Amino acid sequence: MTDSTNAKENSVTEVGEVGLPEDLARADLYGLIARLFHLPPDQTLLDQIAATADQQDAADSAPLAKAWMDLVEVAKNNPAKAWHDEFDLNFVSVGKPNVVLNGSFYMAGHLNERPLVNIRRALEEFGLEASEEVTETEDHISALCEVMRYLIAGDDVEVSNLTNQRVFFNEHIRPWYDDLCNAIEDIPEMHLYRPIAVLTREFMAIEGQSFDMI
Known about the structure:
The protein is an all-alpha fold. The protein has helices spanning 20-38, 43-50, 63-77, 80-91, 103-108, 114-126, 141-153, 162-172, 177-185, 193-212.
């Protein structure tokens, strides 16, 4: 996780070649975003994030680096219970939560719509399926980030390759991640997940720009 901010401005190599350290950093950051939107962070994870403060270049003014440092600050200064409370209040509900984390809602206006069908078809082509323990549908932002992590760092080069990364990202994440981040930032009471929304937006923007160069 400590290498995640090294993704920075070259999250995908410009000529489409595999750059192992950069790709591992990208996979790492996708994994962290997936984790934070799947469950609120426990104290161990918060401590790990906070511990990266000494490893960052204070002179680095890149938006992604700044977003990471903002996350470090809230991780350092807020206990796990505060994160748990904010997560439950805004992302968990028997009805419609304050913030929906599913792509179908943003792309089609409702849950369990055509975008979810398209994602399931893509996963079937990759030979992937959701674990029985997972309760969220495959269009949940955490699930999609986990797929991207696999497409970057998986061992099967027939599936885990740059072409599949680009297509999956452009079709299933790029159309709506900005709307999700806006939804989080539009709730003034969401103090802890706001830096995560900013980090997600900056990282995804870099991903999109990099894929456009391929």
